[in-house]
Amino acid sequence: MELENLRMEHMTHGFNPLPEDDGQRDHSFDMLFAVAYVSFQELATRVSHRNTGKACGDPIADRMLQRVAADENLHMLFYRNIVSAALDLVPDQAMVAIYGIVANFVMPGSTMPNFRRNAVLIAKGGIYDLPQHMDEVVMPVLRKWRIFERDDFGPLGEMYREKLAEFLAQMDVKVARFTESRARAVARAAAAAS
């Protein structure tokens, strides 16, 4: 019952994946933010569902979650292709949206009560964590879009590509810290168990 109440509360309040408006955003391109968001979010959901299936140890649940993950992948491909076309048609505006989403990404459940606590448990369980987010979601999508190989950005797109590169460099540091922290925790747990 508690889970259903939380779900209903979350659905009632809704979720807006767009970053806060800085007062300079051209709202005629908000759709680009939305499809950029779901390009990453659908892949993140695919990864987490697939890992949940593996972790649960139940072959039926694993197969069910494989199917859900496959559906999530189809959704991601659709949205990723829309953003790819946007990069060809309006590269600067698409780059602004991509940066805005990558730098401010949160999962839809982030507004639910106890989300941070649950996210820690999910990360500890190997379901979804920062290294997975960067290595299995963000970077593959950016590579597919050839973000750092493109030569069709104007000054605005170039500026946001540089901001994205700086953000990714900061994330590399956070991923390294996370990985080191997890290794220490695993070592402590192993020492305590022996």
UniProtKB/TrEMBL annotation:
Key word Lipid metabolism present: yes
Molecular function GO labels: metal ion binding; stearoyl-[ACP] desaturase activity
CC cofactor: Fe(2+)
Alphabetical list of Pfam families matching this protein: FA_desaturase_2 (PF03405)
Keyword Transmembrane: no
Gene Ontology CC annotations of this record: cytosol
SUPFAM superfamilies: Ferritin-like
Keywords: Fatty acid biosynthesis, Fatty acid metabolism, Iron, Lipid biosynthesis, Lipid metabolism, Metal-binding, Oxidoreductase
Alphabetized InterPro entries for the sequence: Fatty_acid_desaturase-2, Ferritin-like_SF, RNR-like
Record-linked Gene3D superfamilies: Ribonucleotide Reductase, subunit A (1.10.620.20)
GO biological-process terms attached to the record: fatty acid biosynthetic process
Similarity-based family: Belongs to the fatty acid desaturase type 2 family.
Subunit structure: Homodimer.
Identification of the protein by name: Acyl-ACP desaturase
